[in-house]
Every structure is written in structure tokens, then in C-alpha cells.
Amino acid sequence: MVAVTNRRAVTVPEGPSVVPRMFWKLAGGRPNPDDPVEVALRAIAALEALERVDRPGVTASTLTFLMRLDGDRVYAAPEQLRGEPTSQRSLVFTVGVVVFETLTGCHPFGATGRSARAGGEAARCVPPELRAVLETAMAPFAADRWSSLRALRDELARFVGRQRTAIAPAPRPRSVPPPCPGSAVRRVAAGTVPPAAGAPAARARDA
Predict the structure, then answer these.
(1) Tens digits of pLDDT across the chain (207 residues)
(2) What is the set of domains in the chain, with CATH numbers?
(3) How far apart are alpha carbons 157 and 163 in whole angstroms?
(4) DSSP assignments along 160-187, one per residue
């Protein structure tokens, strides 16, 4: 299917779940759902693509347009379902739902959008810090969400940074090189260094 948005042609993937498929396409492909850091990194890449208005078919209005085109409303923000004006906070909600669903395999609000809240059983497999970011993104009221796609991207980047710091290997202990053959340390160990000036001579042992 080919649609036109912002005077440009957009290729719409065939089949169900157009919105998440298009979102991950912006990131170069669907991430491994068992790796939260990879999912966050791919989401960051997709959000950066959405901000590049000069790239064909990836403006910030594309996902909203696709939801209307495909009739898939399960990713729409509550205000969008009510027919109220939308903003980037509405897209923040959509991205939060897509990322959560990718990580857990379940829609955060159930297939009908009225059950299985994000704090339920499925959310337990999401790291708490990332879960907090997504729950803010999916807040029912727009004013309680991240203010923009860039703000959501920054929060995901902070999560990735802290995860990388937490799993970074401990620095290796510095190895001490052996002393040079003619160094004072080696000559003292061999007993070949004469006593310092003014130091008493060692007593000879009785035979």
C-alpha cells in the first residue's frame, strides 16, 4: 500500500500492526525483545528519524496519519480517540505503547484498551527504570507525559547509559613491571649495594 503524506509517498507495510512495523522500520528493523537495552537503542534511533523532517515519509505526523489510514486505534492516545486536538505528547503515548508491547509481547492496556494495566504481570519483565519511563509516556493525561519525542528519547538514552555503566567490567589491576637489572631495588635485594655514608658496618659473624 502506498499513501501520500506531506506531499510525499509513504510505503505502508501490508498486514496487521502497521504502526509498530513502521516505527521499527525507522530504526532499521525490529529489535530483540529479550534485550531491553537494544530495544531502547532502536527506539532512540526511530525517534531521531522522526525528528528529521527532511527524510521522506518519517515526519512526526507519520504515525498519527498511519493510524487513521489503517484504522488501527489501539496505539492512539486517549485524547486522539476522543477526537480532541493532539500534540507530540500524543505520539509519545503511541511510542510508549509500541516499545512496551515489543518488550512484553502484550499490549499494555489489553486488546481492547480497557484491561491489563501496564503495572500488571507483563510489566515485570521490563527493568524498573525503563518501566518508569514507559509508564510516564503512557500516562492517561497528556500533561503527565514526557513533553516531546525528544524528551522521551533523552530519558531512554539515560536508561541506556546507566545500564552500560552498571555492567561495565571493573578496571584491571595495574601490573608492576619488574625492576631494571641495574636498578637500586634489584641490587639491594642481591646485597650488592654498599651501605650509605655514615652507616655502621655490619658485624662479622663468629666463625
Answers:
(1) 333 333 333 333 344 477 888 889 889 999 999 999 999 999 999 999 887 754 444 455 555 555 554 456 788 889 888 888 888 898 899 999 999 999 998 888 875 444 444 446 667 789 999 999 999 999 999 999 999 999 999 999 999 999 988 765 555 566 555 555 555 545 555 555 555 555 555 454 555
(2) 2-164 (1.10.510.10)
(3) 10
(4) HHHHHHHHPPPPPPPPPPPPPTTSHHHH
Tell me which amino acid residue 152 is. Answer: L
Alpha-carbon span 115 to 103, nearest angstrom: 18
Q: How far is CA 160 from CA 23, 40, 113, 133, 167, in A?
A: 19, 7, 29, 12, 11
Count of alpha carbons within 13 angstroms of residue 48, beta-carbon side: 11
- Give helix then strand counts, H and E, for the chain: 8, 2
